[in-house]
Write a structure and sequence with these properties.
Blueprint lengths: L2 H24 L2 E2 L3 H7 L6 E6 L5 E16 L8 E10 L8 E7 L13 E6 L4 E5 L9 E2 L6 E13 L2 E13 L7 E8 L3 E9 L2 E11 L4
Parallel strand pairs: 1-4
Antiparallel strand pairs: 2-3, 2-13, 3-4, 4-5, 5-6, 6-7, 8-9, 9-10, 10-11, 11-12, 12-13
Length: 223
Amino acid sequence: MNKSIKLLLLLFAGIFLSSCNNNKDINPYYKISEQFKQYCLFQKQSKWTYQNDTTKSLYNLTISNVNPYIGFHANNKVSGAYSYDVIDMQFDTINNNLHILKGTINAGNPTSGSGKMHDLYWLFFSEQNYLLAFAPGFPMGVEQRLGAKPGLYTNIKELADFTLNGKNYTNVYHTQVRKTEGTPDTVTYEFYFAPHFGLIKWTRQVNGKTASYSLKQSNLIQK
């Protein structure tokens, strides 16, 4: 192979690689905000103890594994393609009577929504039931239709102070999810999230009956 052909091949290879890198840079990459991590990201062995507010029974929820990876959102009519951070927090299923299997946080698209944090926190339960529990980027008081599985999500209020079981929490987000599809009766969840403590209280209401759980104590690890 003579020198001129080699030079041409090197030139074409350089153009190809440059084109690939440019295409890669076209799609934005979103990271989970540090503020959102304070509310939702906890490390392995973090433990919450919740109380059933009616029976006073106690239930433990412990993180058994944390798995970060990068997700990809394909181009559609609503938004363009982008990559985003995802972190799965697996919960210990041994003696887990709360039936919460996993909490997943992912970076959202900062070009949508009006809040300070555009990230999302999903809860996964047994029997393939999951919902969006915390998405502060959506405007307050506006119900968001997310589909049959995630349900109808609403940011109810941000509470400057919130007292629970004798402890005071600040900057608590109160959210609501209504599941109306794929279920014979409407199920309404309400969640309360506090920085450095995560989910501190939630309720589940169906057919006029309400189950309520609140945080009694915790041993939490954050980076």
